[in-house]
Amino acid sequence: MQNSNHPIPTVYDVAERAGVSRGTVDRVLYQRGRVSEQSRQKVLRAVEELQYKPNSNASRLARKKEYLFSCIIPQFNEGEYWGEINNGFLEAAALLSERGVRLRLHFYDQTDVKSFLAESNAALDDKPCGIIMNAVFRDEVTLFSQQLDELGLPYAFIDNKIDETHYALYYGVDPYKSGELGAWLLSLRFPPKEIALVRLLRDSSQRADPNRPRRHGFTDYINEHFPDSTVHTVFIDPKDSCSTQKTLEKFFAAHPGIKHICMTNSRIFLLEQYLREHPDPERIVVGFDELKHNLKCLERGYVNVLVTRHIPEQSKLLLTDFAESVISRRAPKRRDHYVHMDILTRMNLDNY
Amino acid sequence: MQNSNHPIPTVYDVAERAGVSRGTVDRVLYQRGRVSEQSRQKVLRAVEELQYKPNSNASRLARKKEYLFSCIIPQFNEGEYWGEINNGFLEAAALLSERGVRLRLHFYDQTDVKSFLAESNAALDDKPCGIIMNAVFRDEVTLFSQQLDELGLPYAFIDNKIDETHYALYYGVDPYKSGELGAWLLSLRFPPKEIALVRLLRDSSQRADPNRPRRHGFTDYINEHFPDSTVHTVFIDPKDSCSTQKTLEKFFAAHPGIKHICMTNSRIFLLEQYLREHPDPERIVVGFDELKHNLKCLERGYVNVLVTRHIPEQSKLLLTDFAESVISRRAPKRRDHYVHMDILTRMNLDNY
DNA sequence: TTTATTAGCGTGCACGTGCACGCAATTTCT
DNA sequence: AGAAATTGCGTGCACGTGCACGCTAATAAA
User: Fold this and answer.
1) Where are the alpha helices (H) located in B270-336, listed in sequence order?
2) Half-sphere CA count of A281, side-chain side, radius 13 A
3) Do residues A308 and A348 make contact, with C-beta atoms less than 8 angstroms apart?
4) Nearest to B172 by CA among B291, B338, B336, B341
5) Which residues of B touch A55 (CB under 8 A)?
6) Is A180 in the B-facing interface, judged by CB distances under 8 Å?
7) A56, A173, A221, A347: which to substitute to probe chain B, counting the most B Cβ within 10 Å?
8) d(CA B160, CA A250)
């Protein structure tokens, strides 16, 4: 329903108004080739007066240009954190496909630096126009980003980042604050005396500890607000549910005063069996991240609160934003996007 | 980076493979005109084998078709609830403009049935391909939707709906559940004895009460879980902050035992002055909806919890989904979208 | 002054689809 | 049997842009 006095202007209209040809308008708009200053001004004025915007459909049809982005993220099993991130990328890629955006995925092993190096090289071989990655291996990622800087290839971080690099974009939560929020929620109902902080046994080969900032946010909050409380740390083996069970039994038997339990990584669901077999209506359990298993635990009442955000949303927004900025050759309005932290309980679990 | 063995197929490829001309392929794909059953089958097979998908850019360029949607929503002032809804619509419209989607907005006066009737007629005059509205005046909206049914015009509800109509799509919260959630949060820290439920004085001309379901969710939860508590209702005048102040002073002076305050509409910010002038660290205040004024109150500690959702997101998603379904001439996958309710506190206020 | 060079500019083709027109073959009507 | 209508199908043009080619006139070099 376009006003007939003002049909959408085309290059022809601009050219006519400026008294030049389409080609000249094109050269002015895209700084290709040689145009006299006089014509340039006339064209720019005409563009302004007519409010000319190139027809993006015609433009993409004519150009047939593709924008390839390479993602380098950790391997995952169905339903895990990085699987959700991956879903967000795929969703965004589907939406952006008609704009010529293509995606290539590279998965590395979080316990193996070499696999990261291999995949980052493979990503370069794609000749992409942008790279998305996360930063588990700080040194290697720093080096890689220097390489990208030299090549003039823009890159973006998802989930965690390295501040010293020249990344174009970042989407993720503020891990320290999420830890504080978890601590606040844990202590909301009644002040904690003894707290269990459950952690994961890690391969000695895993140098990086991506969970540190959140854990510190958690412990700092507790220490500041409840200086008289004690935080007991217990380690479980994520690969061995049997030993996990025994470890927990022993641990909680030794500390019967514990009414507050928290896990600052995304695997609170590993406690399910123990929590089910040792019900306690007074106990408060706080976990992080909306993995399907975690949501189940919340629904069944084993876990009281999850601190999370819509995980796929975060990667979806990142790719959309990144592609937009690369295509339009403009820096994004904002560089750091700390996504909102949701508080999830049994009461607002639906429709998440 | 397309595999050179499989360039993206075009109608020409399909036509060649099927041994017919482009025109025939076109007729098969869009059921226009006369095709022999034999050719039809050949074309369909070729489409399947080549995985042909029409190039949407070329298609839109050639068609130049516009899809006009008319929205009928309440008038608002900057920063109010419907203003946020409106922002979501505008955001979606901007994104969808290159797909030929246009938007026409109609604002009516929530206290005046006639203005709704006028605007709904105006919306029809637009000759849109879809209508979006909310349902304050139940009878009139029901009649209007019957009219739309007869015209075969699809319509969608935002924020609230009328179940008996044949709406195509709905996005909103479950108001009853949001009320329950508010009650749960209000009673989380310690069990309530006396509760203040602050309500708004309403024009006698306002027949509808869009806030009822949420209020009932709230009171039902309280009555069920805290049968010994009493809910005191107090009415304030949203247009007169001076009288509001006096009313509240008198009310709370008469009920000094009240430690729990809730407003089930979106205007908890109206209590700001009272709460500021009568601080009480023990008191719990729960409100709804992320209006800018409300967020301020949360930040400054006058309000403890807001139950909300990202308001513009809801209208943005609705328009996107609705346009998608109208353009593709397919019913949406899901009809009712109860958006997730966020719990907002001082601790997770950032980046919302 | 003549020739080579380059600045400035116009034009034609391609991109893939939608749609209208019209031709040939077949069927129906008179 | 001849005219009229209908079925089945191919073709041409338009949509608005990107880009390469090549022309003209001005300028620099010989």
Assistant:
1) 272-277, 292-299, 311-327
2) 0
3) no
4) B338
5) 61
6) yes
7) A347
8) 53
Across the strands, what pairs with B132?
B71, B156
In sequence order, which residues have a C-beta less than 8 Å from that of residue A121 and are 6 or more positions away?
none
Tell me which nucleotides of strand C come within 7 A of a protein CB: 7-12, 14-21
The residue written with tokens 């928290």 in the block is A262
Locate B199 and state its tokens: 């309500």
Nearest-CA residue of chain B relative to A64? B57
DSSP state of B9: P
The helix or strand, by DSSP H or E, that contains position A125, with its residue range, turns out to be: helix A113-125
Paired tokens of A56: 């993006």
Q: What's the burial of A124, exposed, middle or buried (CB within 10 Å: 0-12/13-18/19+)?
A: middle
Number of H helices, E strands in chain A: 13, 12
Which residue type sits at A25?
Answer: V
CA distance B100 to A58: 13
Provide the edge-to-edge strand list for the sheet that holds B67-74. B101-108, B67-74, B130-133, B155-158, B169-172, B336-338
What pLDDT tens digit does each residue of chain B (352 aa) get? 333 456 799 999 999 999 999 999 999 999 988 899 999 999 999 999 999 999 999 999 999 999 999 999 999 998 889 999 999 999 999 999 999 999 999 999 988 999 999 999 999 999 999 999 999 888 999 999 999 999 999 999 999 899 999 999 999 999 999 999 999 999 999 999 999 999 999 876 666 677 899 999 999 999 999 999 999 999 999 989 999 999 999 999 999 999 999 999 999 999 999 999 999 999 999 999 999 999 999 999 999 999 998 899 999 999 999 999 999 888 999 999 999 999 999 999 887 7
Strand order in the sheet with A336-338: A101-108, A67-74, A130-133, A155-158, A169-172, A336-338
Strand C: which residues have Cβ below 7 Å from it?
A 20-24, 26-27, 33-36, 38-39, 58, 61-62, 64; B 8, 10-12, 22-23, 26, 29-30, 32, 52, 54-55, 58-59, 61-63, 65
- DSSP characters for B268-283? GGGGHHHHHHS--TT-
How many alpha carbons fall within 13 Å on the CB side of residue A323?
25
DSSP bridge partners of A344: A306
Token pair of B170 as six digits = 């709905």
Q: How far apart are CA B64 and CA B50, in angstroms?
A: 27
**Among the partner residues B2, B343, B352, nearest to A348 by beta-carbon distance:** B343
Flag whether the pTM goes above 0.85.
yes
Distance CA A192, CA A230 (A): 9
Secondary structure of B22-54 in HEC code, one letter for each residue = HHHHHHHHCCCCCCCHHHHHHHHHHHHHHCCCC
* Sequence-distant contacts of A278-281: CB under 8 A, at least 24 apart: A278/A252
At position B242, the amino acid (one-letter code) is: C
Give all strands (DSSP E) within A148-220, no chain letters: 155-158, 169-172, 194-200
DSSP code for A129 = S
Using an 8 Å Cβ cutoff, are A116 and A108 in contact? yes
Q: Can you list the pairs that B89-93 forms with residues at least 24 positions away whose Cβ atoms lie under 8 Å?
A: B89/B132, B89/B315, B89/B316, B89/B319, B91/B312, B91/B316, B92/B315, B92/B316, B92/B317, B92/B318, B92/B319, B92/B320, B92/B323, B93/B319
